[in-house]
């Protein structure tokens, strides 16, 4: 068994102003997305400019935060927030849903694409490889906070989390950071180096994330207020991944069955 390295959730404090690790991880994720987006936009024939990336990332911050928070409220604990509606705005206390964040991102991509004459799939293909580094940073934030830990286990790398009781558990945050962050980023970045049919890069992200998250959920402790929501072994996260997997596979394969598949940088 490994010893969980207890962290102070506050990274930096100056007087009454405190910067928490969780918030800093979000900032790191957005900064990496902005930088990688500029790298992709600089490629010959990309059809994108640095200004496009700057504007898009700015709006995506709002989409991720609002969508992620509302997604958590709706999918994971609606009864609590119906009884305590003022708590919805308390983002600093935790409670963000990746799938809600995806919904916010899709809405922003659609609206921004319309404003510059580009389609949703084209915008999605640009940003898909930019997302996994942010997922890595976010999962590391979960690990630092000692939240979203895994199920009880006796594997040699199990840890006892301060908020998870006395039994050792899977460090599922690190599993997700590795698969959804590092592995998915490497796969997407290499795949996007060549022109692909429009929607294929975004489709690979949806498919890859959905499969990785679905797998790791078997090691992650389900949310206490929900437990297993289907067949006594599937979590809410797994159910929400199923449409992502199906949509991602369709986006990657649709050009084989239609004449409309077009290459996208």
TrEMBL record:
Lineage, top ranks: Bacteria, Pseudomonadati, Thermodesulfobacteriota, Desulfovibrionia, Desulfovibrionales
Functional note: Catalyzes the transfer of the diacylglyceryl group from phosphatidylglycerol to the sulfhydryl group of the N-terminal cysteine of a prolipoprotein, the first step in the formation of mature lipoproteins.
Subcellular location: Cell membrane
Protein name (Swiss-Prot/TrEMBL): Phosphatidylglycerol--prolipoprotein diacylglyceryl transferase
Keyword Transmembrane in annotation: yes
Pathway where this protein functions: Protein modification; lipoprotein biosynthesis (diacylglyceryl transfer)
Family that this chain belongs to: Belongs to the Lgt family.
This protein's record includes keyword Heme: no
């Amino acid at each position: 068994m490994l010893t969980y390295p207890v962290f102070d959730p506050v990274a930096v404090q100056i007087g009454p102003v405190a910067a928490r690790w969780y918030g800093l991880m979000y900032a790191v994720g957005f900064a990496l997305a902005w930088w990688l987006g500029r790298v992709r936009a600089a490629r010959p024939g990309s059809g994108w400019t640095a200004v496009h990336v700057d504007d898009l990332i700015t709006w995506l911050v709002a989409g991720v935060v609002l969508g992620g928070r509302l997604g958590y409220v709706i999918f994971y604990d609606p009864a609590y927030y119906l009884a305590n509606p003022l708590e919805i705005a308390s983002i600093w206390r935790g409670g963000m849903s990746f799938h809600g964040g995806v919904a916010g991102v899709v809405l922003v991509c659609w609206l921004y694409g319309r404003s510059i004459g580009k389609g949703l799939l084209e915008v999605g293909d640009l940003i898909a490889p930019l997302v996994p580094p942010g997922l890595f940073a976010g999962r590391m934030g979960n690990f630092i906070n000692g939240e979203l830990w895994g199920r009880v286990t006796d594997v040699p790398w199990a840890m006892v989390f301060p908020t998870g009781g006395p039994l050792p558990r899977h460090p599922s945050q690190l599993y997700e950071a590795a698969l959804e962050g590092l592995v998915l980023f490497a796969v997407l970045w290499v795949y996007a180096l060549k022109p692909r049919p429009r929607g294929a890069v975004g489709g690979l992200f949806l498919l890859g994330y959905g499969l990785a998250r679905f797998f790791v959920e078997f090691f992650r402790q389900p949310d206490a207020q929900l437990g297993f929501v289907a067949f006594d072994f599937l979590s809410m996260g797994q159910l929400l991944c199923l449409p992502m997997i199906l949509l991602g596979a369709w986006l990657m394969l649709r050009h084989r069955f239609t004449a409309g598949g077009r290459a996208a940088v």
